[in-house]
Amino acid sequence: MAKFRLPALLSGVVALSACSLAPDYQVPATPIAAQYKTIGPWTNAQPADQIDRNGWWKMYGDTQLDDLEARLLGSNTDLRAAYDHYEQAQAFVAQVQSELYPTVSASAVPLRERQSDTAPLRGNGPTDYNSVTLGATVKYDVDLWGRIRDSVAAGKDEAQATKADLASVRLSLEVELADSYIRLRGLDQQTDLLNETVVAFAKALQLTETLHNGGIVSGLDVTRARTQLSSAKSQLSQNLGQRALLEHAIAVLVGTSASEFSLPQQTADITLPAIPTGLPSTLLQRRPDVAAAERRVSEANAQIGVARAAYFPDIALDLQGGVQSAAYAGLVSAPNIFWAVGPQIVQYVFDGGLRRAKLDSAKAATDEAGERYRGVVLSAFQQVEDNLALLSYLGTALDQQRDAATSAQQTVDLALRQYKQGTVGYLDVVDAQTVELDARRGVIDIQTRQLSADVQLLHALGGGWSSDELAKVEATPALVAANTEH
Question: Is the separation of the CB atoms in 426 and 419 below 8 Å?
Fold first, then answer.
């Protein structure tokens, strides 16, 4: 039966090496509604994942926005930094995975030595001699308790979380650029309106001056018209200042110096696309920040296994061998061979509560990561509901504001007609024109806010990202073993 002892021992070692002391991982439970509150029952006629979300901004049909987004992806410094951070996480995975394999080192030590004539216990050997050693060492950590494999699993989870972070940074930058661009276009429309208003107010001033020169109206009408014109010009200058700041911000986003970047004014309306939201349950698969938070819960769970493994002996196998001689000739020959083989077993006897504290810390970190995951999920649902509500109410407000602008224009026309006839004072004209300008600017403002809410809804829904992206990080046999139930 002795011949079966070694295979049985090896089988036992292999069985133990598949063990992990980490708790069985469960994604933290989070309340998920059956449907979004704002839009009513969901139908599967237009599932959200069928839209091309890898380039979601193309839904707005603006070629200049398309070009800016492409420049952002190629040149944004924050995005490049996030990618470099992801590369670091990938390199760290390779580092921890290396501990799964034996380490092999080789050495060559050619020496010429001389003994002291007065050395204690000096023998009768030669005073000067050669010592030539060629050797190699192989060391392998058996990892019976899964410390290394759980470390690899934790590193892999962090790498996946970092990849989701990269996607989150990319999406946030894409959204920031789209939102800035939409607000800049809104300011372009405001500029066009204010330029038109300045021309209209200048004509009104000319009319009052003509009437005043004819003795028909008082100088009070002239000063009111001049005040109104100057106020409109001031609003125009402020508007251009806001546009310049947005233009500079866009320059930074696309990786260009603000001093060398400009965007021509455009006043064409940007189409508001219809965005199918999908079921609330699909949101967890389409938000990179949710995926990152979930992967960090898994990482913290694996670290519990690492902390538990510290309670057990660390067993490593050492093998050393080589040749050693006082002469170079015939160095590699049987009489000069030396070797040593055996296990190294290290076990803490007393650590002052260090391992207990590390285990408690790992458990608390897992609880913390779980709560952060739940918080991210709840915030995600809130952001979707917020922007759905905004889009709904802003749509109603836009219709109402357009009605107000139409009525205000009619009031201005009527006031000017009656003023020319002398039936009303110029103060009535000023009031009517001020209301009409505010109403028309209100239309542009609501349109801009509606588009901004639309962009933010796409952000809340995960943009062009899917949790399937995490599967593209290649799995290794070591990671499969790390997830084996003990």
Answer: yes
